[in-house]
Amino acid sequence: MWDVLMARNILLKFLRTTKSNLDSQKTAGNLIEGEPYFITDEQRLAIGTATNNYVELAKKSEVGGEAVNIENLTADKYLTASDAPIQMYTCSAERYIYLPMTGLSLGQKFVIWNLNASSSSVILRVFQQSIERGYITSGTKYEFRWDGTNWIAEWSDNIAIGYSSFGNYNFGIGIGNSASNNYTHGIGIGSNANSNYSYGVGIGFNATLNLNYAVGLGAYSTSNQKGAGTIAIGAFSRAERNREIVSTANTSTTNKAQMTIQKFVEKDLSSNGDAWQELFIDGSGARLVIIPSSVYHFLIQINAIDKVNFAVKTWKIEGAIKRDNANNTTLVGSTTTVTSA
Q: Does domain 68-261 have CATH number 2.150.10?
């Protein structure tokens, strides 16, 4: 049986069903994404988020009487001050949501839900005119409050402090003008500080972090394309390799001089006849990459121990290596090796 509701020239149809029957249809994969269902034995609405999933919506008594708009968006949405404060959307493609700028009361809110399945990549992007206030990933919601001049974003799993500051993914923290966090658990502190990947931390003006588990401290500091697990310290510092600590002695965006610390891991050899083994930076396959148009002075320390009789030998190898702008890499002169007895 269908219930039909006519409001504001929009025709809404709700399929009436019981909770048990809806669950059966979910198991069978017979639900329709964006389709509203009225659960008769619970007196509440549900929305299909996939053929095998749905979300239940609160009853009026559970939300304090706030009006709710449930809609499958086929185009961008332009809200007005008189629209329901709770907006729940499904969509098959990215949509822009435009917040109203006239007829508003101080403290007025909109809570915008992205009801697409959490596995979906479809995003809702929310704008105050041409200014992006945040974007909402599938299976999450954002709250916006009117302060009399601007819309201020709030999110239960996010901290956003500052003009046009927002955390774009779950559990993000953005503090400062336009500070934004693009992936889960990112932290950006400072104007335009952006943590672009999961678990990244950026502190300082335009501090950006492009790989996981990386830290950038200082204006324009960044742990760049190959910098997983790196730390960049100081203005314009840029980490280039896995698990390195970098401090750049420069005042421009191009790295010309820097201090780099690399960690080398252990290797076990069972006998004197074992083949030579390469000591990788990450223990498996990462090598030290020389940046084009640069020269590096290196100091390599190797410690070896015989685990049977505990004999020890050490090596210290020092030298320089250069790479031109055509990516030709050569040693500068010869290396110096100091070996212990």
A: yes
Both tokens of 4, joined, read 């039909």
> The pTM is what?
0.45
Q: What is the pLDDT of residue 304?
A: 86
Do residues 291 and 255 touch, judged by C-beta distance below 8 A? yes
- Mean model confidence pLDDT for the chain: 77
Max distance between CA atoms of the chain, in angstroms, equals 92
Q: What is the pLDDT of residue 271?
A: 75
Q: What does CATH list as the number for 1-65?
A: 3.40.1620
pLDDT in tens, 191-239: 777 665 666 777 777 777 656 667 777 777 776 555 567 777 777 777 7
Count the alpha carbons within 13 Å of 137 in the hemisphere toward its beta carbon. 18
Task: Give CA–CA dist 239/94, Å, rounded.
Answer: 34
> Measured between alpha carbons, how far is 75 from 217 in angstroms, rounded to an integer?
41
